[in-house]
Amino acid sequence: MLEVQGIHTYYGLSHILFDVSLRVExxxxxxxxxxxxxxxxxxxxxxxGLAPPARGRIRFNQRDVxxxxxxxxxxxxxxxxxxxxxxxxxxxxxENLEIAARQGPGAEKWDRERVYDLFPALRAMDRRRGGxxxxxxxxxxxxxxxxxxxPQFLLLDEPTEGLAxxxxxxxxxxxxxxxxxxxxxxxxxxNLRFTLGLSDYxxxxxxxxxxxxxxxxELVNDPQVRKICGI
Amino acid sequence: MESYVTVSxxxxxxxxxxxxxxxxxxxSSGLSFILGVLRVPNVAHGSLYMIGAFVxxxxxxxxxxxxxxxxxxxxxxxxxxxxxxxxAERLLFCHLYEREHLMLLLFTFALALILGDxxxxxxxxxxxxxxxxxxxxxxxxxxxxxxxxYNLFLLAVGPVVALGLxxxxxxxxxxxxxxxxxxxxxxxxxxxxxxxxxxxxxFVLGCFLAGLGGALVSPTVSITLGMDHTIIIEAFLIVxxxxxxxxxxxxxxxxxxxxxxxxxxxxWPQFAIVFPYLAVVIIxxxxxxxxxxxxx
Lengths: 231, 296
Hints:
heterodimer, A: alpha/beta, Rossmann fold, 6-stranded mixed beta sheet, 10 helices, B: mainly alpha, two-stranded antiparallel sheet, 11 helices, globular
């Protein structure tokens, strides 16, 4: 589904990503693990076209999508859930979902009702302004908004960041459910334990370089990986 | 001097201020909309207002100068301005959105000068005036004082435009997308929306309002070069005191500006021009970010 080949990404003059490569097969949940500032967000933004790489190639759905603008990536089936949520604060919850609604290529046909079925807490807030939601609610809304574009592939950036443990658990269940529904996910996380039960394969990123990759169950037992992830 | 101020005179002058405020609102809401969604401080907005007035005059004359010509001009002049702005957006502005505001200010200032000269080349330096259709001419009695019918017409048009803008931004999908893009254009792209098109649409809509303001004002003023400078200064002040990008702020700012201007004429004619600016100074001293919430 997604193949990133040796990308280098810069923010202005600062070189952030060095030769990052990764693969995500259809139906997989692949995680990208690393500390704050390791390059997780930049990797996801590079894929989405929000921070286009200066070198390297990105293939998505058998197409070379290097340098594509974000809206074309979204139409091609990539759903983006940013780490800082980026909810449209002046719009209501319902309007946030409404403007994202699109007949995307995903197999599941998401609409407002189905998204509310997945996140029942949002249904009661349909008419509330997005900016008034709590952090956890905004995280749910950000995922719901991405689902409204009917993606095949979800880029999830640190969904558990700043969430209470109970919410983290319920979020894990939702992501597992999305996987069961056939969605492919690239999950950027700091929380190694959270990804354990969810993902098939993991990449460890440190200082803008992929330093390890393998099955998550094996990565957990690697002392170097444990050190990088701070366990 | 004070003895001339009567209650009916006060009310009549207040209404004159209100109708002036409607023109200011129509023009500054367009400026504010472009500022809010595109983050472009468009100095050339005033030039489009002036062009709207000139085009309205030309069209009305071409159609014989009668009532039909006036209505035709009222519809077609803003449309012509919208088409000019569409060309400007596609050819020039769309490449410049990522530039810093100072660059945009200089660029749109240059454009204002060019449009000003083009207006001079096309229409010359003569004063022109447009005649309102017969049933909008003359005066009606309001509380014992004559009040121009055309100003009553403006008082009706202003709220219609405000309502239309409100419906557009709150009830249409494009309007909601424009509101979202005002806050986070990158994220709007990430949900699959071609932001470039939304920007083009928002720009053209804002400029249409400038043209509409120009067409509407033309029966009440003499259409001449230089009317672009006056209006752009007023519109920027209005948008600033109202809150950048806030439509209701543009309305509040226009009312304050228009009414303080007309009241000034009544209370102290020699210094009338100072009043609206005094109001601006007072408001910005008390609330530097503007009366209502800015989207910036």
